[in-house]
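Quick question, first post here. What does this chain look like in 3D?
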Amino acid sequence: MKVCQVGTAPVCDTTAPRLDGWRCYSAEMSAASPSIDHDDLDLACDLMQHATNLAVAARRTLPDEAIVRKQDGSVVTAVDVAMQVLILTRLREVFGEVPTIAEEDLQSIGGKPAAESHCRHLLREWGFEGGEDRIRWALSSGGLDGVTRGVEYAWVLDPIDGTQGFIDDDHWCPCLALLRRGEVIFASNGYPTVLGGMLLSGLKGNGSWWSPLAGGECTRAVVSQKPLAAEEPVRVVAPARATPSQTEARLALGRSTGHDCALVHSDSQAKYGHVIAGLADVAYSRRGNGPGKYIWDHAGAVLLAREAGAWVGDTDGREIDCSLGRRLGGNDAVICAARGLGPMIATELAARDRAEGTGRTSRVEVRGT
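> Answer (accepted):
Ran it through. Tokens below.
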């Protein structure tokens, strides 16, 4: 398989779906997980390139009424939902009915008539074929949860990671990963705000590859492990809308390496994309006292960064466990680092956890130090 071969084939034909009564539909997920031919994963790359370009265009004309709040208070748009419908429907056509963990569901914009209407408009414009039943299926089939080590294959989808950045014309990315018995073996993320607009795809053991979203030759992603020179600052990713405490925490973390610190603002899995692209040296997400980060915000980048040569791990140096369902409940942090900084950053974050009484704590030794 050559995951760098990305085309722009059309996805579906045109029909106008009816989205009435989204909340009322419930579909049973298939217990079967068909075998996936890894040579066909290029088709998933094609799909993610095409879908990312559609979202780029949709963002330019996003009406205010297509932006709503979910029940948990997080922001979502009609584009998020339309992207999930499009991507999951096409994946089903190509790979069969594979169990799926996805962020959006029937309640995401259900009961918000203006947002539903804009979603219909987008799907119509994108040439979606399937009608109401297929839309309902796509929004009710992503609820896989629980340990996935016994599941042969499962998709993990975040149709738009970083929805606030999408709204604000900041960093965002559509993210797709494939688990095999709980381990990420394939990923394809669209990075419209990184390196002029790129798709980054990778297969375990086969590297990660950049492909321009506009089309063109692919290049292998290689993360530098060359140590920083004494005068070089360490570049640490901070949220685009960082609070003063978040800013100071990241500056302090960078300075703990013995270097000056420069902040690179990014959110979503785009923060890991910055490290992979050589635009930053460290990106991380802490768990704190929370129940664990959502898998769809990290799974794809964990594989892509590792395949590109980045240091990826937890505060104790162990790998990120993506086999526990919808949350990364077994990890205190997701750390992605270049320039040999990983173990040092992990040690510092572990010390911070102990001082704050957060995380799973009481772990002292970091492997690789």
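The domain at 234-356 is CATH 3.40.190.80 (D-Maltodextrin-Binding Protein; domain 2).
The chain has a mean pLDDT of 90.
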